[in-house]
Amino acid sequence: MIRLKNAKQIEGIRSSCRMLGAMYRELIPLVQPGVETLEIDCWTRNWIKKAGGKPAFLGYGPKKNPFPAAICISINNEVIHGIPSKCRIREGDLVSLDSGIDLDGYISDQAISVEVGKVSDAVHQLNIVTRECLYRGIAAAKAGERLLQIARAVESHARTHGYGVVREYCGHGVGLSLHEDPQVSNYPHGPNPRMNNGLVIAIEPMINMGKADIRVLNDNWTVVTADKQVSAHWEHTVAIFDGQTEILTERVDQ
Ligand code: MG
């Protein structure tokens, strides 16, 4: 069931999204060669705590294997849900960061892919096109239109460049919990409800340089590309309200 949000709830989610944007702006310059991804998680936890929020990702998921960090850090062939570890970031990596904050019960969700130093032209292109897919998806999110318009916009742009669109994972309703209805696919698939005022969704294309196929590592979290090629991930939390579409999370890529 889709939980449409009222103005007060959207204001709460907007505040949470602003906090997340402020965090990312400070975090991005720290994503440097030699840094352990565990250090980034530690920094993220502390930052969110100090700011007065709670990490929305920490402890999320099945009781037997909850996500153990405040931020997903997925490098190169890792698509999403990378677990911070002793692994060090290297020059030329594409580092996808995905995090969310629970601020007084209002949840934000945003992902960005950071180029560390000089990446290859092919990786840079993948990163740019994935971000374009996100903004094309957002442009298709309009009051009164159907949800799968987003999927069509994302998929067609990725396909133009010969990229694979990950099918097994998708965007989602967000705001009062981390994952709510509806599923927001990146390819036309599944239910196609109308987008009504009060809809708050995370739009998050995951685009592979090679084939769309993925697999999950033995940690039961880390999703990697089956062909070991690089993947990029961009995400915004978006609200439709009063007939307008607003990106609630901040553009930290500018
Ligand atoms: Mg998300």
Secondary-structure topology with pairs:
Layout: H1 7-27, H2 37-51, E1 54-55, E2 71-75, E3 78-80, E4 94-99, E5 101-103, E6 106-107, E7 110-115, H3 121-139, H4 148-160, E8 164-165, E9 171-173, E10 180-184, E11 199-203, E12 206-208, E13 214-216, E14 223-225, E15 231-233, E16 236-241, E17 244-247
Antiparallel strand pairs: 1-5, 2-4, 3-14, 4-7, 5-6, 8-12, 9-10, 9-11, 11-16, 12-15, 13-14, 16-17
Helix pairs in contact: 1-2, 3-4
Biggest pleated-sheet summary: 5 strands, antiparallel
Secondary-structure element pattern, one letter each: HHEEEEEEEHHEEEEEEEEEE
Gyration radius, rounded:
17 Å
Record the strand order, biggest sheet: 10-9-11-16-17
Task: Describe what this molecule looks like in 3D.
This protein has 254 residues and is of the alpha+beta class. The protein has a 5-stranded antiparallel β-sheet, with helices on both faces. A 3-stranded antiparallel β-sheet has the order 1-5-6, with helices on one face. The protein has one domain (7-247): Creatinase/methionine aminopeptidase superfamily (Creatine Amidinohydrolase, Alpha-Beta Complex). The chain has helices spanning 7-27, 37-51, 121-139, 148-160, and strands spanning 54-55, 71-75, 78-80, 94-99, 101-103, 106-107, 110-115, 164-165, 171-173, 180-184, 199-203, 206-208, 214-216, 223-225, 231-233, 236-241, 244-247. The model has no long low-confidence stretch (mean pLDDT 98). β9 (171-173) and β10 (180-184) form a beta hairpin. It is built from 4 helices and 17 strands. The chain binds magnesium ion. Magnesium ion (MG) binds at residues 109, 172, 202, 204, 235.
